[in-house]
Prior knowledge:
The structure holds 3 protein chains of 3 kinds. By secondary structure, chain A is an alpha+beta fold. Chain A has 2 domains: 7-247, Rossmann fold (3-Layer(aba) Sandwich); 256-375, no CATH class. Chain A is 26% helix and 33% strand. Chain A has 11 helices and 20 strands. In chain A, a hairpin with an 8-residue loop joins strand 17 and strand 18. In chain A, helix 4 (110-120) packs parallel to helix 6 (154-166) and helix 5 (125-138) packs across helix 6 (154-166). The radius of gyration of chain A is 24 Å and the shape is globular. Chain B has one domain: Orthogonal Bundle (MetI-like fold), CATH 1.10.3720.10. By secondary structure, chain B is mostly helical. Chain C is mostly helical. Chain C has a single domain, classed as MetI-like (MetI-like fold, Orthogonal Bundle), CATH 1.10.3720.10. In chain C, 75% of the residues lie in helices and 0% in strands. Chain C is globular and about 70 Å long. At the B-C interface, helix 1, helix 3, helix 4, helix 5 and helix 6 of B face helix 1, helix 3, helix 4, helix 5 and helix 6 of C.
Amino acid sequence: MIADLEPQAENTTAENGETITVCFEHVSKRFNAVVALSDVSLAIRRGEFMTLLGPSGCGKTTLLNLVAGFFSPDDGRILIGRQLVNDLPTYKREIGMMFQNYALFPHMTVMSNIAYGLKTRHLPTREIARRVADVLALVKLVGLEDRKPRQLSGGQQQRVALARALVINPKVLLLDEPFSALDKHLRASMQMELRDIQRKLGVTTIFVTHDQSEALSLSDRIAVMSEGCIRQVGRPDDIYTNPCERFVASFVGDANVLRGRLVSMNRTQATVALGAVQILVQSEPLLGIAISAPVDVFIRPEQLRFTEANEPCASKGTIVSQVYQGGHVDLYVECKDSPRSRLLVRLSEPRASICWAIGAQVGIALNTNEAIAFPIV
Amino acid sequence: MKTQPFLRTLVTPAALCAIIYLVAMAMVLQFSVRAFVPGSLTPGGLTLANFMALLKPLYAHVFLNTVWICFLTAFSTLIVGYPLAYALVHVRHPLLKSAILITVITPLFLGEVVRTYSWIIVFGNNGFINSILLALSLIDQPVQLMFTTFGVVVALVHVTIPIMVIMLSTALAHIDRSYVKAAESLGAGPIRAFLTITLPLSTPGIVAGVTTAFAWTFSAFATPQLIGGGRVNMVSNLVYQLGFASFNFPFAASLCVAALVLTGAVLSLLRMAARPLERIGPY
Amino acid sequence: MPRSRMQRLLGIGGTLIVLAILSFLLLPVLVVTMAAFNDKALLSFPPQSLSLRWFINAVAYQDFRTGFQNGLVVAPWSASIALVVGAAFALAIDRYRFRFKRLLEGALISPLFVPHFTVGLGFLMLAVQVTLVNTYVVVIVCHVVLVLPFVLRSVYVSLRNFDRRLELAAASLGAPPQRVLITVTLPLLLPGLVSGWLFAAILSFNEFTASLFVTGQRTQTLPVAMYNYVREYADPSMAALSVMYIVGIAILLTIANAFLGLGKVLNVEHDR
């Protein structure tokens, strides 16, 4: 499956112009000698929660900053609504942004912080008071209007930052890794709250993160990026089960890699030999590869299991470590068919840690017919 | 680490310096309440005559004049120094930054006398300004700039700018850039963002700068002496005249004490006036 | 960054204002340089003919030479004593608790706010009492007190930026406190210490008001000599001396900036 590029198809007619809120067309950006973004095109639908996911340096924050207007693109066009905003300064764009460090104005109360965007729009005082009260109820911070940011906890500060961005009814909400400073539990609950609020208000949202589990749990669609390009755009389940290239397969979710051999191929499917078994995979990523050439098969940890006695194995190995995770056990298997590292087998059987001890020689089998294979590098 | 090794060694020299300094200050205090014996350096008995003499209009006038000049200088320096500090902090190009820094800081290291002397050449009747104005036929007679309060204040501002810029730029540099970005993302144009975010958050620097400028200007001697030429008198000049010219140490000392009290009072007033401002500031 | 027309206009306006202010700062320097090369004795503009005779005159003038030499004695001594006292005390403030800490700190910082003529008068009176008038000692002690606040600030800033864990690492490797101090702390604080010394030396060399009170005929420093000259003579020798002064300081500061980075020392770099 090739990367999901939609702009040409969707934003030409007036009707579709309403459904696309933010559009990047062949956007490039350089900082001195470093290429941050290279010919990036992406269309974000109205009301959609789009996550830009990738490792540091992939360009996701640059893309966000381009929407915000902190930089101008070197090439390409950026549209918000149907308006070309390349040369429009930040304060004239209708965006709401939540910064990584919250950037709450330290010299203003919670009330003044939230009202700031409404004051710049010259709304009447009564209207401002009403909207601030409404949004405080939405983020569950009623009663804290007169506090200063330094008197709030991390979680409370974050809600104020969110409220401040939402109260102005922005065309697009921009979030730059907002949860990275929170501890695990707070992060989980804040993520859910954010999603609820976003659905309730229907505000188009662009969310930047390097945490793939966060991306998978929050997004309507994910754009996986690396080295200044978008590798794949799609729904979370699509990205997880049908990665279009190696990078996406290994970045999103844990991935095991087993070296196999291409046996046969037609237009839709290919047969790959793995040890003593043969599996069917999508043939598209393997187009052009010769028969009998080695290929890498990507399998998720929960898609592997250990073989019963005398069952044909895809591979063999030795268990070298166990990590008990409460609901499941992660077993690491040293295996010569895995070109990079150990295999990770995830078992949720209650007695898995006892049945499969360290040092045991095991056979590996696949629990699925949904593996993906890519040519070797 | 409960033990504090070397504490005595580290603190004793400083304590010694402090003691010597405080003894010198105590001498000033002591002399201010002793009588002046003309022709001798040893003072007479205890008396408040020196302080009574200060109430004479002549001396009161000098005090008021000094406070006025200090205020004028401090606030003018603030207005002139703020754009420089802002530029210093926000300019990206390193060479440009260095150029501004060197231009601003170098006068600090030239000393009062050299700087004041340069202004004499600029202000004099045959000096730079008058020569240019005459050459351009904008005036027929040289404009009197020397021996005027205006001249003294301009030269004092020139002398005080480096310190003001240092204090302001330290404060400005500590303002997180994301605040202004957040304000812009909420629709604030550049002027609004500056007035509602940058300016209030720089109040600690403004307060520090103005109080330091005031204290420094109060201490100025060469500038009012050389440019004022006896017609513009600050307390410093008076102390010198009395202390050196007539060796009236007791009266000079009482002037110093009165000056200290006055400076302390004005600085406290400035601090109190600044407190509501500090509530606007970040802390 | 996309900018509106208003932002661009503000940018141009701001640049013009800054240039105007910088010109104001440079004006006296340029004027004095022009005057120094003027052949005529009158302080007039524009200079009709150029000559170097005022430079020769300035260098030859005995009071200037004595003043310069005295400055070369007083400044290094004051700076060094102030550095030792100030660095030691700054270490104590940063790391230790002791009685009278705030009091002592306040006393030593107070010369920043006490007018120099008061400090000068006080030391003069003290010198009279202990009959040390017209000696280098009283001048040096006075200067030490005056530059100490700056040294304290400079060293304190360095200490705040210093990572204490390096000392802990050295201690964990077996180094006793003195060794840690000498082999780890002091070498890493060196840039702050050097710039503090330089700053103090220049301030002491330039100090005028208090020096006017505490120096005598023999111990007269250069600023005092210059002041006396200006009061008596009106020729551009002072201008020539000023130019030499400016060039010397500019060179010194450029070297200091190259090695130490003045921006960091004066704490004007933008926080990232």
